[in-house]
């Protein structure tokens, strides 16, 4: 038997230590924006399953739907086949998300994770254009499989591939060059220069806000410029909305605000709304090119996830209330971070974000780590991101209340002060 208080690392010697999250407690229960450890201590969770719990832990409406479904012996396996749960999800996704936005997408289930959605998107784009090259961006994160790693801009993670990651080229993300070079100048020049050895890409894959890369926010006009470049130069635009989709930036899709319509969109993390594995690859109808069986997998059709996803869409995406709530609360975080940075101006900390994803960048990763540790001691879960883990990332559930937000921001300010 396991003694309470021992972490899984201590208790089970076989636990592989490759994972970076090591809060020194064992978590047991959670609801809404709060999570409890087995000793009964409660924390505000502004990490929210790395963005997979936009509607909070054990959201009561989603829980009811799941319990009802299991109670009536609904299909619980995840093999990709027609089920009533899948049909209900597709109908609701169409009527609550795609139709009101005038989006033409076909929906496919690429496998259970965000990585699976990215793999499917890359494969489909390459097939559609008959070209191998794909462009991605500095500090991008798209997943840990070989295909998705090849478009990930993180040297440490790429090194883990163990083989050359080929057919991809990184380009500077928005603001990477601090405006010293006009947007896309390099890119245009390489596309024009037939002799440069730059292979014409099948696609460009981009996050509108780089979550893992340090909360780097692309401007709407930069995204519009990119979409325009892709159209003019016959490249497919893939928006990876795995972390920023499902309302994180306000709209259901993070690219809505820019008014662009990507050719392919990846969605995962919060689509089930209950932390259950589920992913979507959305693409324009002309990209419906796969034969049956050309891309398959046992866990492509997670029925319990369809049930909670449908309940989440029905509850939160039939009107604009959640979007409004997200934007108003995002404004609260922005004000708080602005004050914090002004107060601690000599540290040179900076902040940025959109909707309910915010980053507080320190000059050293040690400080960012110390802030997260202190915050944990004071009852707040937050994590670092960025190429050097120097950015403290705030990712509360979208359903967070204003008072929970103020409480968490108060703890963050205290943690910053305590580590000065
Ligand atoms: N794309 C983005 C933008 C992500 O943030 C992540 C996960 N952090 C992934 C892809 C990979 O998703 P998963 O971990 O579910 O495979």
Order of helices and strands: HEEEHHHEHEHHEHEEEHEEEHHEEHEEEH
Q: List ligands, each type once.
A: 4'-deoxy-4'-aminopyridoxal-5'-phosphate
Largest sheet: number of strands, sense, barrel closure? 7 strands, mixed
Strand content: 15-25%
Distance between the termini: 42 Å
Pfam families: Aminotran_3
Family: Belongs to the class-III pyridoxal-phosphate-dependent aminotransferase family.
GO biological process, one term: ectoine biosynthetic process
EC number: 2.6.1.76
Plain-language structure description:
The protein is α/β, with parallel strands linked by helices. It is 35% helix and 15% strand. The protein contains 13 helices and 17 strands. The protein has helices at 8-11, 48-51, 60-71, 84-98, 114-129, 146-150, 155-159, 185-192, 220-232, 303-316, 321-343, 365-377, 402-418, and strands at 27-31, 34-37, 42-45, 106-108, 134-137, 168-171, 203-206, 209-210, 216-217, 236-240, 264-267, 280-283, 350-354, 357-361, 380-381, 383-385, 391-394. The strands form four sheets. The chain has a seven-stranded mixed sheet with strand order 4-12-11-10-7-5-6. The chain has a four-stranded mixed sheet with strand order 1-2-3-15. A hairpin with a 4-residue loop joins β2 (34-37) and β3. α4 packs parallel to α10, α11 runs parallel beside α13 (402-418) and α12 packs across α13. The longest helix has 23 residues, at 321-343. The radius of gyration is 21 Å and the shape is globular. 46% of the residues are buried. The model has no long low-confidence stretch (mean pLDDT 94). 4'-deoxy-4'-aminopyridoxal-5'-phosphate binds next to α5.
